[in-house]
Amino acid sequence: MDETTPWWTEATVYQIYPRSFNDSDGDGVGDIPGIIEKVDYLDDLGVDAVWLSPVYGSPQVDNGYDVSDYRAIADEYGTMADWERLRSELHDRGIRLIMDLVINHTSVEHEWFVDARQSADSDYREYYFWRSGETDDGNGDGDDADDSSRPNNWRALWGGPAWTYDDVTDECYLHLFHDRQAELNWENEAVKEELFEVAEWWLDRGVDGFRLDSINLISKPDGLPDADPEEGLTGLHEVVNGPRVDEYLRAFCRRLGDDVVTIGEMPDLSVEEARRYVGDEDENLSILLSFEHVELDRGTGARWAPRDWELPELKRVVERWQEGLTDGGWQGLYFNNHDQPRAVSRLGDEEHRRASATALATLLFTLRGTPLLFQGEELGMTNPRFERFGEIRDVATRLSVEHAVEEGNVSGFDEVSELINDRTRDNARTPMQWSAAANAGFTDGEPWIKLNDDYERVNAERERNDPNSVWQNYRRLIELRDEHPVLVYGEFDLLLPEHPELFSYTRTLDDERVLVVLNFSSETSTFELPDAIAFDAVETLYHNGSRSDPRSLVEADATLRPWEAGVYRLS
Length: 571
Ligand code: NOJ
Description:
Elements: E1 13-16, H1 32-36, H2 39-45, E2 49-52, E3 56-57, E4 69-73, H3 80-92, E5 96-101, E6 105-107, H4 111-118, E7 130-131, E8 163-166, E9 171-174, E10 181-183, H5 189-204, E11 209-212, H6 236-239, H7 245-256, E12 261-265, H8 271-274, E13 287-289, H9 311-324, E14 332-333, H10 343-346, H11 353-365, E15 370-374, H12 395-406, H13 413-423, H14 426-429, H15 460-465, H16 470-483, H17 485-489, E16 491-495, E17 502-509, E18 512-519, E19 525-527, E20 539-543, E21 558-560, E22 565-570
Parallel strand pairs: 1-2, 1-15, 2-5, 5-11, 11-12, 12-13, 14-15
Antiparallel strand pairs: 3-4, 6-10, 7-9, 8-9, 16-17, 17-18, 18-22, 19-21, 20-22
């Protein structure tokens, strides 16, 4: 808004999942030179910053979210020289670079863990959580103790116990994700210092900020008490937002300085808890990534148990977050990322692909906060179809199914294939669809994960040549937000909260007021806006369809087509 406003409030961030973006050397895995080939594409779209999912040294158990060397680039992604070129090519175009920092845990192949595991006296032992548990049962299957004999009853997020026994020192270590991702012990000053130095090392190389992975998990509850069985023993509820998360983050942000963006990924966060992470400006997380809006369809009980939901619930969640952070704090706006199914398939309607993708985009770009797009979202990419367990690459899906089968809760993939098709993170990770050429132009080799077979119809080349495509609409919306600070900073006021199909609100900044109207359904919908909205003084700022007079959409008794969306200036 003025020169004191941080750059990221008005930015649009584009997330790249390198493995699936563009492969330059034909090994079937995306890489950094592949990203460099596409920087002009990003520039044309108009994004201001790239969030790069992890490219560090890693055994790739969780596609890089298991770091074994924070100061190296994984061989399959390229070299440090490639990374430096990418940074420069982005910066030359005015695009900032945000690295994904995974500092809640490391890979068990990180040298700290390798050393820690060797001896209870290792200098690195206290970098992790080691506790005595029941000893080896001697059968060598690595699955020795039952839950009651482990240090506590926590379950890992993808199933199975959160503690793994290690016979070298006859103790268990804690891991909330895969057993090859060991939790770091932030209680230990040396750990914090090491991690701060990692961040500074990358800042010295010119990065503009960090997305902080699973960051509200970094402080564990004192004494690591048992989880309440009523909470499903996932461990998550017991370990998020622990007693010192805010203290650690304040120290981290102070150290990094004002101009560095910090985007905190925070599962299981309520608006009230979010205030803990919002304090003085120089020690705040810049952007909070919360989950409530993408968890409406999640039931309780078994992982991924589905739940039906209605639009008014989503409106209430959006309203709560829009209003809840106005006294400080800034929200990241997203529907898609590498962990979420494609929003068109999940919230929109594949039968109305173009209209629903652009209606969702309209919502994203007209809320208060910073929009974060995920590669392929701007093409309106949808979920693919996974026919066999063998096609699943996502370690979270694989582990969850394997544990469920082991524990006798499901018989196998077939029983849960619909659920998996709806929810697996692989939905987001199929290769970026560049063209109708073989393998969607992603690779000359064999892709590491199956393609969505709609790529001849849905691809960047085609989208860019079509004036009404999803891509063109994203580009217009990015521009629209750039031109209208009211869309970035304006106060949010929800209209018609109980309307089952209409999502409508105003945004107000000083004497500027904007109205957003969108039909969040595949049905034709009618509505009447409150009298207070001045119908006769509207100017169309954006419309996602082909209505000859978009203003007619906000005239009395207007009828909206499926997923029709418009943005209007009110006087
Ligand atoms: C959140 C990341 O987004 C996800 O992909 C990863 O598996 C977990 N954190 C563990 O790092």
